[in-house]
Every structure is written in structure tokens, then in C-alpha cells.
Write a structure and sequence with these properties.
Length: about 130
Amino acid sequence: MTSSITHIYEGRWNRDVYVYALSFKDAKEKVLNHSAFGDPQLDEYAIGDKWASAKAADGWRIAKTKRRVYTVVAQVVGDPGSGDTAHLVWQCPLCRRIYSEGLTSDAKPPMLVMCERKHKKVYAIADFRR
Ligand SMILES: [Zn+2]
């Protein structure tokens, strides 16, 4: 199994990681589209919609961080062009769990995926062909 130490971007509310991506732009977009991003007064799933302004402040931040990242080969199941939801199917290299994640029509390989089933967070770069 192949792995390397790679910079990734985590979208966090305080210390909790909600999204992760291979670029700052993708991580920020994922935060903005996440159900936890919003006004908790108006939305029961939301935890907040403000960005942290200083180290100690509450809020969202995009953290560039170095992680060990594995490489996995993933398969696309379903055809987004036909109106179906396409799924990215991949297997965790450590615990062997198989994941099937929804794939938006604009998602391009490689994509950062994560497992935290029987171990701490394990990130993997999933390569796939559409
Ligand atoms: Zn796993």
C-alpha cells in the first residue's frame, strides 16, 4: 500500500473537522455547502456561519495540515449524465471497509476520502475515471 505525507486542507469548526480536500478552494466550497454551515437559529443542523477571525475565536477555518495520505483506486458506479447519482466506491487500505460516496457531476479525480472506523482518521487520495 502506497502512502505519502501530503498537505491537505481541513474545514474545521473550532477543533472539529467537517470537511477535507486537496485544495483550499475545494475545502472552502465544501464548508459553504455543508449542512453544519448556517445560522443555528434558523436551521437545526447548523452550528454556525461565521469564519474565525483570530486563533481563539469560535468559527470556521480552513487549516492546511500535513497528513499521511494513502493512495487508493476507486470506481465510479452510476452515470451522472443520465440523471442518476453517481457513487465513488473505494476501500480503506487499513480496515478494508468499502465506502460508497455520492459523487457530484463536477467532481474530478483525484479526490480526498477518509475513514475513521477502526483507527484514527485515515485519509486517502482516490483516483478514478469518469
Ligand atoms: Zn479504515
